[in-house]
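Hello,

Following up on my earlier ticket. Below are the two sequence lines again, exactly as submitted.
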Amino acid sequence: DSGVTQTPKHLITATGQRVTLRCSPRSGDLSVYWYQQSLDQGLQFLIQYYNGEERAKGNILERFSAQQFPDLHSELNLSSLELGDSALYFCASSGPGSFNGYTFGSGTRLTVV
Amino acid sequence: AQKITQTQPGMFVQEKEAVTLDCTYDTSDPSYGLFWYKQPSSGEMIFLIYQGSYDQQNATEGRYSLNFQKARKSANLVISASQLGDSAMYFCAMRGGPSGAGSYQLTFGKGTKLSVIP
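Thanks for your patience. The regenerated structure is below:
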């Protein structure tokens, strides 16, 4: 167990639907990063939150949004889903301060049918 | 902008032999970090080794070592005494200096699929 918990592990949904992916960071970590891994795009950074505030945005679609709650868990919301959104979504966390390593969760595998 | 290049889509190695996985990078940040992750077929990302741009010595972690050549901007992973369980995807990644917002996100290469042959 890496200490970063992602739920659910698998998700199958239909096109046009909305889903929420959840991430609980390692205890004490303030930063949460979301990544998308697809066959054609590889591992892409989506968004980062630090202590409840958005810190950086990467290649995140407008149909996607995220937030980090006061207890530091984070949710990634994907809406109007398309077949191309099928991917493995990772959450990673890192500690306070400038840099303190990354711990990845086991990922949520999303399949859009 | 940061870029990681892994030129070997797939590699084969005989069990108990050593193998080198290539990684080159490009960045304008004077301070950066380089990572290698292993992703087995089960999907999780397993941290293997880290090299900081100012580290004087090459990083080592058990059977893993990082051949860091700063002038060439390369950070090759060397796995010694390969085992069947080493069969997996291997990703090189870079963490640059903080962006204006203080973010330290990773930039990943496309990966190398390593297959260990008995």
